Amino acid sequence: MLTSLSVVCPVFAVIVAGFACGRLGLLGPTASSELNRFVVYLALPALLFQVMFEANWPTLWQPGFIASFAIGIVVIFGGTLIYRVASGHHLTDASIDALNAGYANVGYIGFPLCEMIFGRQSLALVTIATIMTVSVLFAIAIIFVEIGLQTERRVHRLFAKIGKALIRNPLLVAPLLGVLWSTFNTPVPEAAKAVLHMLGAAASPCALVSLGLFLAAKHRGSRSSRPVAVALTALKLVIQPAIVAVCAYGIFKLQPVPAAVVVLLSALPTGTGPFMVAEFYKREAVVTSGTILFTTMASVVSLTACLVLVGHVQH
C-alpha cells in the first residue's frame, strides 16, 4: 500500500499545486485555459508523435487490450445514456452525463502515472487508450449531443461537421503522423528529436497543473447535483474498471503488464472533455464539474487500491 501511495501521490501533488495556485490567484484567471491549450496543441501532440514513431508495432497490436478497454467504455457510456434518457432527461444532457461516467482522464493522468509505474514502454498502450477516449468516445458523444439538439437535420452534413472536428484534433493528428512517419522508415533529424523531447517532457506536468487550476475554478456546484455526481463517480471509479478487469483477466487472458495498464487506465478519474462539451453547447455544467472534482479526489484512494489489487493478480 505504501509503495502504491508513493507512486500515485506525486501525480496528485502536482494537481494540488495547480489547485492551490488557482485558489490563491498566483497564475491569473486564464492560466488554466492557456496551459490547456499549450498541452493540447504542442506538448501532448509532440509526445504522442514521438511515442507512435518509436513504437514497436508487433507488440503494439493487442486486440485483447483494445477490446477490454472498449467494452468498459461501451457498457458504462451506453448504460448511463439509456438510463438517463429513460429517466426523462434530454438526450443532450444524458449524453454529457454518459461522457462523465465513461471518459477516463487518460491524456492528463494516464501518461505520467503509467510511465512512473510501468516505464516508457507502456506509453504506446496509453496512446491507444487516449485515441479511443479523446477521439472515438468524444466523437460518439458529440454525435448524440448534436442529434439531441437537432441543429443539423441532414445526416450527411452532421457527420461532415464531426469529421472536420476530428481532423482538427491534434491529439488524433499527431499520432497518425507518427504512424505515417514510421511506416516510411524516415529518420527524424536530431534537432527535431530534441524539440519533440522538450515539448513532450512538458506535457505531463503542465497538464496536471492545468487540471488543478481547472478544478479550482470549476469546483462549485449545487447540492441537488451532488447525488448524480456521486453516482457517476461510482460508475467511473468502481464499475468501469471492474468490467475491464473481468475482460482483461477473465475473457481475453492478457499478459500481466497490458492487463494491469488497461485496468488502471479504466480506473482513472473523469477528464475535462465532458466539461468542454457542456460549455461549448451552453448546457448546465454543475454535474460535470462536480463529477470531475469527486472522481479526481476519490481516485487518490481508488487508484492506490487498484494498484494493490493488480499487483496481487500479477503475482
TrEMBL record:
It comes from the Bacteria. It comes from Bradyrhizobium canariense. It is found in: Membrane. The chain crosses the membrane at residues 6-26, 38-53, 65-86, 98-118, 124-145, 166-184, 196-216, 228-251, 257-278, 290-313. One of its GO terms (cellular component) is membrane. One of its GO terms (biological process) is transmembrane transport. Pfam families: Mem_trans. Signal peptide: none annotated. This is Transporter.
